[in-house]
Amino acid sequence: MGLVRRNAPPPEETAAPPTTGTLMRQLDDADPDCRREAALGLGGVAEAVPALLRRVAAETDPLVRDAVLTTLAAHDTAAVATGLGGHLASDDAGLRTAAAEALATMPVSVPAIIPGLLADPDHDVRVMTAMVLADLPHPGSQTWLAQMIAEDDHPNVVTAAIDALLPSLELEHHDLLRAAVQRFPDDPFLRFTVEAALR
Amino acid sequence: MTDNRPKVLVVDDAATVRLYHRTLLDEAGFEVAEAANGLEAVEAALSTAFDLFVVDVNMPKMNGYTCVETLRSETVGTPAPVLMISTEDRPGDADRAYAAGANLYLVKPVNAERLARVARMLTAGVAA
């Protein structure tokens, strides 16, 4: 009996990966899963940064927003730092805290925007800046927090900076903390925070 | 021996704030537990019946507004009062807190007397 030649199976059809343009359009899709996949798919695509920054401002789904911020933070560029820094003043608590968390993972580009944030007239923005500096892996973080404690004129900013500095508090900071109490003698929480820190 | 003091959950990402509120509320006669963000608070609320929640706004993982909304949702469904305390004093912050389900919104810092008075008011009727 002769060999029967079996027909080779047809090659599997594989869909081509979506193009950058397709993914950028999908950032505005009505389906949040589609938007999230698009955001993650745009990792490393520099030309997508403006679209991602627009999306993060408009996004209402926390999971999609986190995906967009994860992709943006990985770029760690001046454009991303500036774009996300503006959200520290957002009226949306979810957006401003998520932006702060993302900025804290961007040690290359964030230091350039810190002086501007420290000088922001809105003390809530300066409180959020302390939140960023608390986790920013940068050698200047301690110095900026110390500057906030020494110079900021709002007690909530000073206490936020003290709290952020606590894990890395050193002997050299003790006089700084005592001076902060002197500057705000009527603030019970600041006094409590300093006493707890010096214990 | 059963602890009949009203149970309070202090929710704040700042360790010093948690310690400050714990100290003040403990002195005021409350049993105090802590959570470092909204997610931890929701987990705690699922296993313990708290009489009061003291919740910050700006926290990682889950912010205070979302935390309060979740506490009020069917998932948790706690009827316990919620006191939100935040540095945020922009117009609309208190409205947002009340829309989420908070009973009262105060701006930091809150002194000892005021915190104790408000906590007692919000837990009036709970055995102490």
General description of the model:
The complex is a heterodimer of chains A (199) and B (128). In chain A, 61% of the residues lie in helices and 0% in strands. Chain A is mainly α and 199 residues long. Chain A has a domain at 110-199. The longest helix of chain A is centred in the middle third of the chain and has 14 residues, at 62-75. Chain B has 128 residues and is an alpha/beta fold. A five-stranded parallel β-sheet of chain B has the order 2-1-3-4-5, sandwiched between helices. In chain B, helix 1 (15-27) links the parallel strand 1 (7-11) and strand 2 (31-35). Chain B is globular and about 35 Å long. The mean pLDDT of chain B is 91. In chain B, helix 2 (38-47) packs parallel to helix 3. The longest helix of chain B has 13 residues, at 15-27. Chain B is built from five helices and five strands, in the order E-H-E-H-E-H-E-H-E-H. Chains A and B meet through helix 6, helix 8, helix 10 and helix 12 of A and helix 1 and helix 3 of B.
Q: First CA to last CA of chain B: what distance?
A: 14 Å
Radius of gyration of chain A: 24 Å
Write down the overall geometry of chain B: globular
Global geometry of chain A: elongated
- Report the average pLDDT across residues of chain B: 91
Strand fraction of chain A equals: under 5%
Q: Quote the distance from N terminus to C terminus of chain A.
A: 94 Å
Low-pLDDT stretches of chain B? none
* Unreliably modeled segments of chain A: none
Task: Please tally the helical runs of chain A, counting DSSP H or I stretches of 4 or more residues.
Answer: 12
> Largest sheet of chain B at a glance?
5 strands, parallel
Structural class of chain A: mainly alpha
What's the architecture of chain B in CATH terms? 3-Layer(aba) Sandwich
What would you call the structural class of chain B?
alpha/beta
User: How are the strands of the largest sheet of chain B arranged?
Assistant: 2-1-3-4-5
Number of helices of chain B: 5
The percent of residues in helical segments of chain B reads: 25-40%
Largest sheet of chain A: none
